[in-house]
């Protein structure tokens, strides 16, 4: 028994807008650096100096985003940086203490009114499947959301 797209949509109070396009890729794929520049409002040099490699994934450390949130002069960019941090650290926590590249891909889609619900559900299934297959491991996804779903069903 696992959550459905509709249940996650209800739990997050997120309207079903373009739910079928969560995994579609644009023809002109913007690089990780360009996406971070757009989201954070910072220069290419600032972004390049902070990108790290964690295993196979490119990431930006949470500490860099935190410092930016506290010091950025543009309030809208502060909110965007904070939201990116929440997505990276709580909903898709793949690299501890870092926000990885795939989160910026999803975050970039939010401006196009694409709902993140199918991606969150897919991460839940993937993580639960890995834990079940190995009979151990750590659940890497939004545990708080899954807990809210459990409470709503039991």
TrEMBL record:
Under the heading PANTHER family, the entry gives: AMINOTRANSFERASE-LIKE PLANT MOBILE DOMAIN-CONTAINING PROTEIN, PROTEIN, PUTATIVE-RELATED
Matches recorded under Pfam families: DUF7745
Q: Where is the DUF7745 domain?
A: 1-153
Its source organism is: Gossypium davidsonii
Query: What is the designated name of this protein?
Result: DUF7745 domain-containing protein
